[in-house]
Hints:
By secondary structure, the chain is of the alpha/beta class. It has a single domain (3-182), classed as Formyl transferase, N-terminal domain (Rossmann fold, 3-Layer(aba) Sandwich), CATH 3.40.50. It contains five helices and nine strands, in the order βαβαββββαβαββα. It has a seven-stranded mixed sheet with strand order 3-2-1-5-7-8-9. A two-stranded parallel sheet has the order 4-6. Strand 2, helix 2 (40-47) and strand 3 form a beta-alpha-beta unit. The termini are far apart.
Amino acid sequence: MPLNITLIGSRYFGAAVLDRLAPLAGLKILQVVAASEDDRLLLRARALGLPARVQADAWHVPAGEIADGTELIVCAHTHARVMADALAKARLGGIGYHPSLLPRHRGIAAVEWTIKCRDAIAGGSIYHLAERMDAGAIAAQDWCFVKPGESARELWERALAPLGIRLLAEVVTHAAATGSIPARPQDEQFATLAPKAKVPA
């Protein structure tokens, strides 16, 4: 039996994850959810003939927007909170990609803070969706060097977006094969925040 997925996301990253997951054996994408009618992910889903819907609230995804029969919710570039009732609807809960080595740089501006803090190493994390944002158990991580003088956008496009697409595909493939997702608690002593605000020069 295939692993049934609801994919929530947006823009280039969401569409790229959809393209990576759609042809994989052992998976079935039951529904795609995006924030707007003209979102690149939604348009790509409809081009592939997949059921797709627009969120009623750009900041929250309730159970009613998760397809019946979903076993895993996959988030690919969404700032919406997947509500507890939505997570409870999926046997394996939900996972998302965060472009930092969690618990470092939790928040909406992780890549910007990576640059502003002059981190020499960046990375990405697949984590379990939980009550606290970006604080769920880690399913997979990988890292990359930051080039001297690189901007946040350049780092995202060169390394962190491709890394996230690959890691999400690996974790979803593992879930399809084993019926489970790795889970390692985050070490709170290393947690830092990356809010969308003025960051240090």
